[in-house]
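Morning - flavin-adenine dinucleotide inputs below, output right after.
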Amino acid sequence: MAAVGVRDFHLGPISRRRMLAGLVGGSAGLLAGCSRREPLLPPTGEILAPNLAIGHRIRDGFRPRPSADAWQETDVVVIGGGISGLAAAWRLQRGGLERFLVLEMETVPGGTARSGQSSVTAYPWGAHYVPVPMRENRSLIAILKEMGVIGGLDAMDSPIVGEQFLCRDPGERVFLDGLWQEGLFPLDSASADDRAAMQAFRAETARWARWRDGKGRRAFAIPIATASDDAEVSGLDRVSMGEWMRLRGWNSPRLSWLVDYSCRDDYGSTIDETSAWAGLFYFVSRLRTPTDESQPVITWPEGNGRIVRHLADRVAGNLRCGLACVDLARREKDTSVEIVALDIGTQNVVGFRARHAVFAAPQFLAPYVIRDLPAERRRNAAEFEYSPWLVANVHLRERPEEFGFPLCWDNVFYDSRSLGYVTATHQAGNDYGPTVFTWYDALCDDPARVARQRLLDMTWNEAAEKVVRDLETAHPEIRSRVERLDVMKWGHAMVRPRIGFVWSPARRQASQPLGPIHFAGTDLSGVALCEEAVFHGVRAAEEVLRGLGRKVDSLI
Ligand SMILES: Cc1cc2nc3c(=O)[nH]c(=O)nc-3n(C[C@H](O)[C@H](O)[C@H](O)COP(=O)(O)OP(=O)(O)OC[C@H]3O[C@@H](n4cnc5c(N)ncnc54)[C@H](O)[C@@H]3O)c2cc1C
């Protein structure tokens, strides 16, 4: 799971640190091959998953009515307390609104950016970093300023980020041929052809970073709404990233691996399913200038759970967790909305009448939750595909032995379809003792429906065994060091930017308001990113504020 970027394949000479690490690891790596299998895992841990029961009830037509005395009036109801819903709430509050509510069906806010806490460290359950935003990303900059992460802007209007929030060194390593190597591109054993292909790829990403359209817009920018819609760029959406690379004669296995890894990592889809637009967006949108390295990464032990906490604290008085919206209806010529929600704890049914609603839940739920959704919007929602992900938090009583380059924040296995793991204690500077590895797998090698069912059917034992076996690739003795292993089954984890989707009318129309119902959610951008979730939350809230007759000094 990585913040891979162009900096990962700088082709400079091998550093002394890397050379030493390689030498030290050489003999240890040989020893690793001789190690015997450790005893089986102790059966400690649990399965977490979004509330599937209520999701399936809504899908199957559950439409309860609240009693006459169970209705409340408010100005705005936000449905969903993930980053986009919380950002919408934050913007409403900043716009001076007091009468609004956020309904979140889980007992905790955050959605796919939620986090956990042990006696050792906090750890993420999903999203775990944001790259330092560029100046056009005004809404995220405003939030990070409020959090004290961004101190100000430099002469180029670029954010100045506190050192303690930038990912510590060493950031990334990859395991190949029995050894850890620095960075994500295994340079040490790369052939001349691999290196040449990397150079050519890098020149191409630099070309795109330099590119501007007639209106001065970048080809790939975050938020995507600020990027160019010129046909030269959007046309890249019609071909897969794999095909686009093959057309250029870039057949290097190392380069293909890096790009495929990046697509799986950021989108949960393979190089041959991801559109070339999305594949390039990943690399180019994080380059401030063609010669710069990728933007540095902002992270915390709990990942983007820190952003969730900040936003949730801000709107704590308006946040209602454990309330699942089961019905959202437009009333009386679109002048208001009626929202029915189920209290998951008490099973009571409650109703809200509001002037506006922000639907900040994923689009695939819209046809089930929004009553009388027009046929065109239903067809649009059906175009959104999501990849399922398995995430595990592996609590270790002590760290495994190391072979080669030392433990990093991000640790990736070249010969695995998993995305490796992130070390939760890394950012806190705890380099010894117990830790938590957050392990990720985007189950993208089967059709999403098949992979999702397999994920949902998976027992804790099966999931734990899959995780530990994968970790054993590089840490043969890890089984005996696992104290606890919890797994999260994300059925609809990430929207897939498959060929043709990002620039499809279906994707673009989905963020248009439907009378008093406004839409937020990262999936509206066709990619799953904190920045896009914040953008859509803030955009939707500004639509609402304008609808309520408030003056809006836009943050987007
Ligand atoms: C494993 C994983 C790793 C990721 N890593 C990163 C990363 O490192 N950096 C990054 O930027 N992004 C990452 N992402 C993407 C992440 O999804 C986005 O950054 C962002 O958090 C999405 O926020 P959202 O509000 O759009 O959607 P969600 O997180 O899906 O939030 C939607 C919320 O709506 C709630 N909800 C749904 N239905 C209802 C209902 N009927 N009633 C009430 N509430 C409802 C859900 O419970 C949920 O809390 C990752 C995602 C996953 C799955």
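Note: The pocket of flavin-adenine dinucleotide is lined by residues 50, 79-85, 103-106, 111-113, 126-130, 304, 324-325, 360-362, 365, 369, 389, 391, 440, 490, 493-494, 521-522, 528-530, 533 (CB under 6 Å).

O.
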